């Protein structure tokens, strides 16, 4: 943002560059960071983006979630720079549900320990079943079958359901999947699966590739039980995860880059799978 027009708006004068103002600064000179000799926290040669791109047309679970409004309010021709104004619900696109989402008292999203956002990624696939039954849920038996192939879920893991729902995102109406009566239908975590992960496995978070941790049928009866079980005690949820078919069931590391705003109940995030 160093054009003469921008400089005039910011400093009240035109024609100076950012370098000119930096030279006038009396700040202490910066030192160049030295490379660390520590062992890398993450190893892997492939990176998958597990995040949906969202815009004003991103399907949200109305009226529970407000539609995003992205306004290109400044452009180069008019102001000398480009900028968007974002009006977004915390539950927009690929996002985190924080511990305080459903009750007052637990920590806000900006208070979650940062090391909990880097976690072993465990992907449990139920796509074949979800293709036939849009109201299906991830069950405790699904988790135990996964463990019979891969071993026990590692401590500190992010465990996610892959129902194949990501493939619906570009088809109008298919992602929320409302029937003729306007009732949505999509998979989520079963209560028994959530309870197993929380009480018998030391997970940091659980996630889904659908609009909610809970299957839509639970939301219709106002019983978001999967949310209530998972969230709390520094645990969080991740919803609307994308591209899970591009990562292995075990062996990837998840990195969750959550927006950090004060007293957050939830927030959009960028999720990577590294393996």
UniProtKB/TrEMBL annotation:
What EC number(s) does its UniProt record assign?
Answer: 3.5.-.-
Q: Transport among the record's keywords?
A: no
- Please give the Gene Ontology molecular function terms for this protein: hydrolase activity
* Region of interest (Disordered), ranges: 19-42
Q: What InterPro entries does the record tag this protein with?
A: KFase/CYL, KFase_sf
Q: Where is the composition biased (Polar residues)?
A: 25-42
Give the main EC class: hydrolase
Question: Keywords on this record?
Answer: Hydrolase
Keyword set includes Hydrolase: yes
In which domain of life is the source organism classified?
Bacteria
Matches recorded under PANTHER family: CYCLASE-LIKE PROTEIN 2
Q: What protein am I looking at?
A: Cyclase family protein
């Amino acid at each position: 943002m160093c054009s003469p027009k921008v400089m005039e708006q910011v400093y009240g004068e035109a024609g100076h560059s950012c370098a000119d103002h930096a030279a006038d600064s009396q700040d202490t000179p910066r030192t160049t960071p030295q490379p660390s000799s520590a062992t890398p926290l993450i190893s892997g040669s492939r990176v998958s983006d597990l995040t949906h791109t969202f815009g004003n047309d991103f399907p949200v679970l109305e009226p529970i979630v407000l539609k995003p409004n992205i306004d290109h309010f400044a452009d180069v021709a008019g102001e000398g720079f480009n900028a968007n104004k974002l009006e977004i619900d915390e539950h927009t696109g690929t996002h985190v549900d924080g511990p305080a989402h459903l009750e007052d008292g637990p920590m806000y999203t900006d208070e979650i320990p940062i090391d909990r956002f880097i976690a072993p990624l465990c992907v449990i696939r139920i796509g074949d079943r979800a293709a036939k039954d849009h109201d299906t849920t991830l069950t405790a038996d699904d988790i135990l079958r996964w463990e019979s192939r891969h071993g026990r879920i590692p401590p500190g893991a992010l465990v996610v359901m892959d129902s194949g729902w990501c493939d619906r995102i570009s088809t109008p109406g298919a992602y929320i999947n409302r029937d003729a009566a306007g009732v949505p239908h999509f998979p989520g975590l079963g209560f028994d699966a959530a309870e197993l992960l929380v009480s018998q496995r030391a997970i940091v978070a659980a996630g889904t590739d659908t609009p909610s941790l809970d299957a839509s049928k639970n939301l219709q009866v106002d019983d978001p039980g999967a949310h209530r079980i998972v969230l709390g005690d520094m645990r969080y949820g991740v919803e609307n995860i994308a591209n899970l078919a591009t990562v292995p069931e075990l062996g990837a590391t998840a990195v969750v880059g959550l927006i950090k705003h004060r007293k957050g109940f939830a927030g959009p995030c960028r999720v990577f799978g590294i393996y």
